Amino acid sequence: MGFLTEIKEAVFGKPPAPPAAPDYTGAAVAQGAANVETARASAKLSNPNVYSPYGTQLVSYEGDVPTIRQTLTPEAQRTLEAQQALQGNLARLGGTAYTNAFGTLSTPFSFGGQVQTQFNQGGALQNAPSAGQYGLAQGGPNAPTLNSQLDLSNIAKMPVNAGTTAQEAIMRRLEPSLARQRTSTETQLINQGLRPGTEAYDNAARILGEQENDLRSQAALQGLNLDIGANQQGFNQALQGGQYGNAAQLSQFGAAQQAQQAQNQAIAQNYGQGMTAAQAQNAIEAQRYNQAMQAAQFGNTAQQQALAQALTQRQLPLNEINALMSGSQIQNPQFGAYQGQTITPAPIANAAAQQGAFNQNLYNQQVGTYNTNVEGLYNLGGSAARASDIRLKSNIKRLGTHKSGLGIYEYDIFGRHEVGVMAQEALVLRPDVVLHHPAGFLMVDYGRL
User: What is the rounded CA–CA span in Å between residue 3 and residue 412?
Assistant: First the structure.
């Protein structure tokens, strides 16, 4: 056994032992026995003794084989015997019916009726009247030729320079007024001491000229509008004249068309009267045809009824036999129904499997805990806090003294040769650097020494 193994067993004890395997064979045998007993109990619960107004039904067992015995009351027994006697009488009566049917069926079936397939077809139907004997509808009158151009010879012509005529008429009245205003303005400027060539005089003259130009422009626009209005008035008058002529021609065309339509309607009316007469004649022939058809159908219906009667007489013996054979059957008394119970067998095999799974799970948890503790023991060498319990060390030899007063030793621990202090001494001199491992041994934090 190695040194570390001794330490592990000294600190943590021996590793947990695996659980024993479940006895699946024994569990299966026990489960089979439980199933057999459950089946027996379910059979007994599902087959009770029954007591009813018609009698009793008792169940007995020879081993696992049940026997059911039904005993009727005297009244029910007499009823059953009467039904059996009636059934025998019906069987004998069926024999008599069989003899009758045999005699009927031994004669071949024959029927001499003849179905009518033709009848008087009636007279020929009238065709539609000929439209030629009434005349054909005539085409309408020819449409007149409408005016497509206007006579513009009497419309006032536009002057060569638009608005010239109106402008001259307005300017003949405007120019004298403008001349008087210019003379008055020049006189006023001279009286004010202003002379031509001065800035004030020129500004006043320029303003007066702009006003005169505005008045002349307004006169030209007024003249142009007057010329346009006169031209438009003449065009509208010519247009109205052309439309009046076209309306008169269209009115004449409509009157001629109405006369032609009246003539065509008279022709159509005569044709309709001829068509009505032909349809009336055809209706008479159709009525004759339907009457002949109904007479033929009446004869065929009478023959079908005679055939049905003959077939009924032939099939009647067979129907009587079928009625006797399928008549009322013997009805045994019915005991009350019983809803049996089913017992579920105890899950012995399943319980054994679950117990084995529980034991294995518990073992896995114990092994995990043990391995965690051992892993912590092995990882102590790589941290600042190291295991320094004298109980874990061997081959101890003092080398000197630490400045804290603790002895310095060399020793073997966990299979390694190390140098350090003893945790038991540090617990007395430097208890602040001593740690307690969950496994129960002492550790020293060398980082704080």
Answer: 10
Report the C-alpha gap between 195 and 202 in whole angstroms: 9
Task: Please state at what angle helix 24-46 crosses helix 348-378, rounded to 10 degrees.
Answer: 150
Q: Nearest-5° angle of CA 120, CA 122, CA 127?
A: 150
Give the type of residue at 56.
Answer: T
CA dist 331 and 86 (Å) reads: 12
Lowest model confidence (mean pLDDT) among 2-6, 7-11, 219-223, 281-285: 2-6
State residue 444 phi and psi, 5-degree precision: -125, 130
**CA separation (Å) from 97 to 103, 311, 320?**
10, 17, 7
Residue 412 has pLDDT above 50, yes or no: yes
Cβ atoms of 395 and 411 closer than 8 Å = yes
CA dist 227 and 123 (Å) reads 88
Please name the amino acid found at residue 415: G
Return the bridge partners of 59, or none: 68
Question: What residues contact residue 208 under an 8 Å CB cut-off, 6+ apart?
Answer: 181, 182, 185
Range name among 28-42, 120-134, 206-220, 283-297 with the lowest pLDDT average = 120-134
* In the predicted structure, residue 312 carries a pLDDT above the cut 50: yes
**Nearest in space to 249 (alpha carbons), one of 363, 142, 113, 383:** 142
Contact 333, 55 (CB under 8 A): yes
The CA distance from 117 to 295, in Å, is 12
DSSP 351-391: HHHHHHHHHHHHHHHHHHHHHHHHHHHHGGGGSSEEE--GG
What are the φ and ψ backbone dihedral angles of 228, each rounded to 5 degrees?
A: -65, -40
Name residues whose C-beta falls within 8 Å of residue 340's C-beta, 6 or more positions apart in sequence.
42, 45, 46, 47
Q: pTM here?
A: 0.29
Please give the backbone phi and psi of residue 179, each rounded to the nearest 5 degrees, phi first: -65, -45
> Ramachandran region of residue 118, left (φ > 0), alpha (ψ -120 to 50) or beta?
beta
- DSSP 8-state code for residue 341: -
Question: How far is 220 from 171, CA to CA, in rounded Å?
Answer: 9
Specify whether the CB–CB gap between 102 and 320 falls below 8 A. no
Residue 345 structure tokens: 């067998």
Q: Which residue has the tokens 């109990």?
A: 41
**What is the rounded distance in angstroms from the CA atom of residue 379 to the CA atom of residue 376?**
5
Per DSSP bridges, beta strands 50-52 and 434-436 are unpaired
Report in angstroms the alpha-carbon separations of 411 from 255, 395, 408, 415. 146, 5, 10, 10
What DSSP state is assigned to residue 51? E
